[in-house]
C-alpha cells in the first residue's frame, strides 16, 4: 500500500469445509431472491479496520501471527437475520424486520462459544476496535429484491459444524469480494 493511503479491511474467522459445503448446498433454495456468497468468501467477521493505514495493518499482522488461540467450533444457531452496514449510510434506508430489502445481507447466526468469544475479544481489544453488539454470523448472500423475511427464516439450516481452520485479515474489494492480506492457521487445522 502506498504511503499515506488507507484501506478498509476486517479480521475474520474462516468456516470449516463441512459447513461451507452445506451452505453452498442450501443456496439454491433461495437463489431467485438472494445472490449467493461465494464459498471461498464465507467467514465470520470478528472486527473491522476502517481506513487502516500501513501502520495499523502491520500492527494487525503482528497480533495475528503472534497470537495463540484454540480453534473455535463453528455451529449455526438456527437464527436468521438480515441487514446492511452499507445501506445504513443512506438516509432513506429504513430497516424492516419483516422484509429483507434489496442489497441487504442474509445472515445465519453462529454459536458464540467461549473460544470464539475469547478470540474476538482479544483481537478487537488488542487493536482498539470497538464492536458494539457483536453477533457472530455467516452471510448466505445479498438480496436481489425485497421479499418477506419469513422466506429465509424458514430455511432448513444445516447441522454441519467443525473447528475453524484459520483467522484472516481481508481487504474489502466489494460487498462480496475480498483479498486475503494475512492468514493465521490454527494448530492442528
Q: Topology of this protein?
A:
Elements: E1 7-14, H1 17-26, E2 34-36, E3 43-52, H2 54-66, E4 73-74, E5 76-83, E6 99-100, E7 105-110, H3 114-127, E8 137-143, E9 147-148, H4 150-153, E10 162-163, E11 166-172, E12 178-185
Antiparallel strand pairs: 1-3, 1-11, 2-8, 4-10, 5-7, 6-9, 7-8, 11-12
Notes on the protein architecture:
This protein has 189 residues and is α+β, with helices and mostly antiparallel strands. Helices cover 22% and strands 34% of the residues. It is built from four helices and twelve strands. The strands form four sheets. Strands 3-1-11-12 form a four-stranded antiparallel beta sheet, covered by helices on one side. It has a four-stranded antiparallel beta sheet with strand order 2-8-7-5, with no helix packed on it.
Amino acid at each position: 500500500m502506498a504511503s499515506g493511503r488507507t484501506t478498509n479491511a476486517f479480521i475474520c474467522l474462516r468456516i470449516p469445509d463441512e459447513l461451507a459445503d452445506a451452505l453452498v448446498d442450501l443456496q439454491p433454495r433461495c437463489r431467485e431472491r438472494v445472490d449467493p456468497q461465494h464459498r471461498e468468501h464465507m467467514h465470520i467477521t470478528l472486527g473491522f479496520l476502517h481506513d487502516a493505514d500501513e501502520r495499523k495493518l502491520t500492527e494487525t499482522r503482528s497480533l495475528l501471527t503472534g497470537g495463540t488461540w484454540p480453534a473455535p467450533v463453528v455451529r449455526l444457531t438456527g437464527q436468521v437475520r438480515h441487514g446492511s452496514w452499507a445501506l445504513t449510510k443512506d438516509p432513506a434506508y429504513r430497516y424492516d424486520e419483516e422484509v429483507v430489502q434489496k442489497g441487504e445481507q442474509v445472515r445465519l447466526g453462529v454459536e458464540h462459544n467461549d473460544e470464539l468469544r475469547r478470540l474476538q475479544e482479544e483481537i478487537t481489544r488488542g487493536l482498539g476496535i470497538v464492536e458494539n453488539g457483536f453477533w457472530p454470523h455467516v452471510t448466505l448472500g445479498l438480496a436481489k429484491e425485497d421479499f418477506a423475511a419469513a422466506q429465509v427464516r424458514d430455511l432448513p439450516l444445516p447441522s454441519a459444524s467443525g473447528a475453524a481452520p484459520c483467522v484472516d485479515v481481508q481487504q474489502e474489494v466489494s460487498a462480496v469480494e475480498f483479498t486475503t492480506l494475512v492468514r493465521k492457521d490454527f494448530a492442528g487445522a
